[in-house]
């Protein structure tokens, strides 16, 4: 009986820590969306009244958020005094994690992404009952932007070195005039990184999500690579045949309702012998209870975002975020690829890279759906 009580107490403590983590996540979401963190980072310490004036928010809510952030340890009290005179500051390390969109430590977008699931919970629960789904489009801009901004630093800072470490891929990309296909390009950060890293390339990004494609075009213009990055709202069935020298699918295969059909269409779009590089989650080879933090995180993404998105367009393979290597191999072979190789790219965030190869032009394109809000 005492052992049972001890076990129950441990479970209760774990749930309480999860509640506290949820409060932190939602308060981070608020600080991110309302501009409170960025004001403290860019304009310096502030009282509640000053922060509210800077950000066009209400001082009483600003005060409550500032105090909560100090109690939870994310802000420091720069000057003691009355509630109205108390001044709060954002430490540099916290500012990097929550405001620096170029840092590999930037995690505020994930609060944005999970925060976006709140309004969708009734629809998610209905989907769990009926087998339906909730698409990225239904989750809205917070989810779309959160995913894109969370991945952006990795493409900007690490993708070039990662690909340079795979000689056979790097050699293709360094060929003048090479045509790259970026399937499920989302907000275009992967396409832009490829264009910046390999100046002789032409990148074609395709996605089914029109808002993401519009964002990708703006991002390419701002980055100065719009002349070499073209983005289109395109179904996989509309890919041109045999025109690409290499293709990439960054963190999107697990979202596809019909991955075999999309992979077959990509295969057809590649010239004979050209590879497809897939980046997807570096989950364990097989399911086991008591998984590590990565498995826990990926099941969270799957339950609330990726699996419902994939299920929103029936008939669906229902893959989900936790796409294990064997599952990708099955999809690839069914699509006509003849080999799947794990590439020697390590220490790249949450992800693993694969190379898919085939010996011929492959089957004709079949209507598919490819999207990743990257």
TrEMBL record:
Query: CDD domains annotated for this entry?
Result: AdoMet_MTases
For this protein, the record's PANTHER family field holds:
METHYLTRANSFERASE DOMAIN-CONTAINING PROTEIN, METHYLTRANSFERASE TYPE 11
Q: Where is the organism placed in the taxonomic lineage, from the top? A: Bacteria, Bacillati, Actinomycetota, Actinomycetes, Mycobacteriales
Q: What is this protein called?
A: Methyltransferase domain-containing protein
Domain of life (superkingdom): Bacteria
Ranges where the S-adenosylmethionine-dependent methyltransferase Rv2258c-like winged HTH domain occurs: 30-99
Supply the source organism for this entry: Nocardia jinanensis
Per the database record, which ranges form the Methyltransferase domain? 175-290
């Amino acid at each position: 009986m005492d052992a049972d009580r001890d076990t129950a107490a441990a479970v209760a403590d774990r749930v309480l820590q999860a509640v506290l983590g949820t409060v932190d996540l939602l308060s981070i979401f608020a600080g991110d969306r309302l501009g409170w963190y960025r004001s403290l980072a860019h304009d310096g310490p502030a009282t509640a009244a000053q922060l509210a004036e800077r950000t066009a928010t209400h001082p009483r809510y600003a005060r409550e958020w500032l105090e909560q952030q100090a109690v939870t340890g994310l802000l420091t009290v720069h000057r003691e005094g009355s509630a109205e005179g108390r001044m709060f500051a954002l430490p540099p390390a916290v500012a990097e994690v929550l405001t620096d969109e170029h840092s590999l430590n930037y995690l505020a977008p994930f609060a944005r992404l999970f925060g976006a699931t709140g309004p969708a919970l009734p629809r998610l629960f209905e989907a769990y009952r009926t087998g339906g789904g909730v698409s990225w489009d239904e989750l809205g801009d917070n989810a779309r932007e959160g995913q894109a901004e969370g991945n952006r630093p990795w493409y900007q800072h690490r993708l070039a070195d990662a690909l340079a470490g795979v000689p056979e891929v790097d050699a293709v990309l360094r060929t003048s005039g090479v045509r790259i296909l970026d399937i499920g390009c989302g907000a275009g950060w992967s396409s832009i990184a490829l264009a910046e890293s390999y100046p002789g390339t032409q990148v074609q990004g395709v996605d089914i999500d029109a808002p993401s494609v519009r964002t990708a075009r703006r991002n390419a213009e701002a980055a100065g690579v719009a002349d070499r990055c073209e983005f289109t709202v395109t179904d996989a069935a509309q890919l041109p045949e045999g025109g690409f020298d290499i293709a990439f699918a960054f963190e999107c295969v697990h979202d596809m309702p019909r991955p075999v059909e999309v992979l077959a269409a990509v295969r057809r779009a590649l010239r004979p012998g050209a590879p497809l590089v897939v980046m997807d989650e570096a989950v364990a080879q097989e399911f086991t209870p008591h998984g590590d933090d990565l498995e826990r995180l990926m099941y969270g993404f799957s339950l609330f975002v990726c699996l419902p998105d994939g299920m929103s367009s029936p008939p669906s393979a229902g893959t989900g975020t936790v796409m294990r290597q064997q599952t990708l191999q099955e999809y690839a072979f069914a699509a006509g690829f003849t080999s799947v190789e794990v590439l020697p790219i390590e220490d790249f965030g949450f992800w693993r890279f694969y190379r898919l190869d085939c010996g011929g032009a492959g089957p004709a394109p079949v209507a598919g759906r490819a999207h990743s809000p990257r």
